[in-house]
């Protein structure tokens, strides 16, 4: 039999145009396209655009007043956008009122009905939709089991802890099977220890149900723990979108570098510009900064180098390396148990922060106030910022 007439069994199924359309709908399950929102002469949200995959947890992160909560309210339908469109699962919903959107929202205050039991709180929306009693009972029982609240079904909200109230609020927001779940500062009402525990628990519940979620938070730890991707916002604009590791390790701007985590930012200019490395001179250090890769820029261009404190080394003796070192005096020490932050004042007056892990008991005693020390870092520890 000739080669052209042989049966080829590659194990793969031919993809059809419908398959490609479905892939696009999964990848762009929610599309926010050029959304702006004005209040009189103030623009709270300025041309925000992003796409979310089906089943993704996406965080809007920023300080108070940056526009993240306004954008969330636009998604929910509580605010009408001045411009732009919102497409959810192929449907433009920007003109729909809140009750006609396949979206549910969990508020920071939880907004549970105080006179209703846990099971009646969860069932409320289903009853409003006219669902059959038996179907409601099955749906509520399943959600109670999912959030581990079955034994508390008859209790009232005031008889529950903060974490339990949050589970009930989450179950109620998931009861109607929304295409999109919105979380408004979901951990804001919890204490620090409980917040850390509930972050992972809520993510587990959402991922098990495969729900697509947009959350708003000002807490960077919360965003980096819960979200698959983060949009950092400032003054109504989205500054950068990326996975938590990308946002932290490769900030696209000075604002993002300073907002996410702790950072040392050294201003300077490009003294030597080559494809595989650059040398940056500045006033804060006595020696130049060597960056072991090329950057988008040119000689004498103003820039800054962002270096995370945990990427620096602290020593009593001068490092042998020619670049990327500074001498100074320990001005302050902040002890956090697992690690310590050292504030080192350089001869220029600039204060650099470095973090040391307290891997052994009393490890922090190796360095103390007013010690003469050296700080050093690697060729690829810093990120060059040009904006």
Kindly list the characteristics that best describe this protein.
387 residues; alpha+beta; Rossmann fold; six-stranded mixed sheet; five-stranded antiparallel sheet; 32% strand; disordered N terminus
Can you summarize this structure?
This protein folds into two domains: 236 residues, Rossmann fold; 115 residues, no CATH class. Helices cover 25% and strands 32% of the residues.
Tell me what you see in this structure:
With 387 residues, this protein is of the alpha+beta class. The chain has 2 domains: 19-254, Rossmann fold (3-Layer(aba) Sandwich); 262-310 and 320-385, no CATH class. It has helices at residues 17-27, 68-76, 118-128, 133-146, 162-174, 192-209, 220-226, 244-249, 254-259; strands at 30-39, 42-52, 57-61, 83-88, 91-92, 103-106, 180-184, 212-217, 229-234, 237-242, 264-274, 277-281, 289-291, 302-307, 312-315, 325-335, 339-345, 351-357, 372-377, 382-385. Strands 6-7-8-3-9-10 form a 6-stranded mixed sheet, with helices on both faces. The longest helix has 18 residues, at 192-209. The radius of gyration is 26 Å and the shape is globular.
Topology readout:
Elements: H1 17-27, E1 30-39, E2 42-52, E3 57-61, H2 68-76, E4 83-88, E5 91-92, E6 103-106, H3 118-128, H4 133-146, H5 162-174, E7 180-184, H6 192-209, E8 212-217, H7 220-226, E9 229-234, E10 237-242, H8 244-249, H9 254-259, E11 264-274, E12 277-281, E13 289-291, E14 302-307, E15 312-315, E16 325-335, E17 339-345, E18 351-357, E19 372-377, E20 382-385
Parallel strand pairs: 3-8, 3-9, 6-7, 7-8
Antiparallel strand pairs: 1-2, 1-4, 4-5, 9-10, 11-12, 11-14, 12-13, 14-20, 15-19, 16-17, 16-19, 17-18
Helix pairs in contact: 3-4, 3-5, 4-5
């Amino acid at each position: 039999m000739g080669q052209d007439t042989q049966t080829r069994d590659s194990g793969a199924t031919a993809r059809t145009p419908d398959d490609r359309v479905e892939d696009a709908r999964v990848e762009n399950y929610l599309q926010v396209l050029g959304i702006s929102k004005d209040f009189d002469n103030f623009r709270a949200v300025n041309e925000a655009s992003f796409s979310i995959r089906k089943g993704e947890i996406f965080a809007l992160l920023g300080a108070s007043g940056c526009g993240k909560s306004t954008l969330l309210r636009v998604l929910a339908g509580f605010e009408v956008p001045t411009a732009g469109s919102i497409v959810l699962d192929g449907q433009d919903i920007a003109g729909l009122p809140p009750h006609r959107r396949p979206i549910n929202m969990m508020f920071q205050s939880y907004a549970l009905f105080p006179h209703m039991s846990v099971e009646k709180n969860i069932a409320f929306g289903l009853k409003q939709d006219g669902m059959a009693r038996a179907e409601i009972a099955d749906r509520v029982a399943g959600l109670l089991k999912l959030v581990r609240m079955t034994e508390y079904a008859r209790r009232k909200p005031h008889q529950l802890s903060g974490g339990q109230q949050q589970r009930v609020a989450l179950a109620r927001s998931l009861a109607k099977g929304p295409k999109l779940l919105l979380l408004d500062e979901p951990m804001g009402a919890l204490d620090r220890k409980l917040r850390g525990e509930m972050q992972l628990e809520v993510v587990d519940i959402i991922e098990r149900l495969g729900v697509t979620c947009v959350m708003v938070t000002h807490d960077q730890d919360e965003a980096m723990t819960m979200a698959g991707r983060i949009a950092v916002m400032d003054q109504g604009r989205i500054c950068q979108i990326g996975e938590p590791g990308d946002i932290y390790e490769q900030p696209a701007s000075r604002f993002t570098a300073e907002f996410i985590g702790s950072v040392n930012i050294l201003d300077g200019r490009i003294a030597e510009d080559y494809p595989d490395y650059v040398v940056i001179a500045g006033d804060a250090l006595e020696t130049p900064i060597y960056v072991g890769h090329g950057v988008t820029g040119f000689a004498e261009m103003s820039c800054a180098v962002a270096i995370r404190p945990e990427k620096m080394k602290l020593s009593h003796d001068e490092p042998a390396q020619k670049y990327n070192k500074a001498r100074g005096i320990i001005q302050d020490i902040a002890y956090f148990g697992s690690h310590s932050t050292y504030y080192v004042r350089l001869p220029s007056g600039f204060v650099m922060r470095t973090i040391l892990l307290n891997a052994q008991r009393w490890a922090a005693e190796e360095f103390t106030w007013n010690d003469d020390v050296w700080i050093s870092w690697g060729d690829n520890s810093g990120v060059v910022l040009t904006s």
